[in-house]
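Box S2. Input/output pair 1.
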Amino acid sequence: MPHLRLYGYPVLIDSAGTAVQFQSRKQLALLVYLALEARSQTVPRDRLMALLWGEVPERRARRSLYQALSVLRRRLGRDALPHRDPAVALRQDLLTDIDILRSGPGLPEGDLSAPLQGFEHLGSSAFEQWLDVARESLRRIACEGLLWRLNAARRAGEAMQVHERAAQLYRVDPLSEPAVQALCEQLLLDGDHVGAARLLRDHLARLEAETGVAAGPLLQRLLQLVEKGHLATRHVDVTAPRASRHRRPEAFIGRRLELGALEQ
């Protein structure tokens, strides 16, 4: 089944695993738009013309759309798109990165923090607005997928996976409290008391600066405990395998009673 990559620079991979070439970025952008918007519903041709060819006369725009749809049919199959219908729907079975994120356990290739790259200044202002919304939606889907995998790894006691997913989630959403918590756990388990305190302070400051909302009490109390040295750390031989990758990480979520006892 063909696979449409959406994170980083979009690429269509055919069933043989080869990247499919297009004559123009607009043709690939049209495929991405149809894959995201025309799977369960149709999109009027006039809408597609206005999005990607709104700056040219209607007759030329209609011809450009016709040519682009013809290219997509050659790449995907003759029945992938209607030939003469006034509205367009993508009928081809097409795997996308969204399917991978929602079905697990793997992750898409590409930068999950930067979806749909390379489509800037490609169409009308309406296309630019759609692009902004689509990127935000894809980042949200990436966050949901990463958080699900982080929690699954925690339940399974896979410390390395917990910290890898936390780092990925933090790159996509630096305001993610679960990501910050897991990264803080890693630093504490590795004996980096200073790094853990710095991470928490930076998170609290960024959260308030960007949202105007203070962090929840758990992370604030955690920072106080780290700064006071109430959370035990240990020195680690940096030449040895990192212990945090071979033991179950201790979670701070739901540990208010334990944290309260440490404060006393």
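Box S3. Input/output pair 2.
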Amino acid sequence: MAVFLRPAKNLRFRPITTTTTIPRFHQIAPSLRLSSTMPVFAEGTDEKTAMAGLNPLLASGWTLDEEERGLNKTYYFKTYTKSVDFLNVVAIRSKSKNHHATMTLKFGSVDIHWTTHFPRGLSMKDVDMAQYCDEQSAHIGTVDQSQAQKCHA
């Protein structure tokens, strides 16, 4: 037996309006002020402390993931070896902190995604590890995407 649904008559659509400024969150990084979404923090996370750590990260190239529950960034390196070195340094710290990222190694870059799985959301562990990634990438030596080594297979 087939069921066919007909659209309702006299259906009216209203435009969605958004506000470009959010006075309550005036201290949030510009990248967040322009969007209508806020990070989804893990239960028990002190949001004020987390935002204080998150703002500089967003200003340095980190972005919220699609669900606003994690952080993403791609680091570019001049050689494949530097990419591997960076991944290994982050992996060692991840193991010692018992907090692991999703990392994708490419020929001249490393993609990193930090999120907390339980309780679900962004936590201070993610913020701390993202800060650690920025520190270590500076020691190893990141480059602009145009200078990163590419695979010429």
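Caption for Box S3: The chain has a mean pLDDT of 83. Strands lie at 63-64, 70-76, 102-105, 109-117, 120-121.
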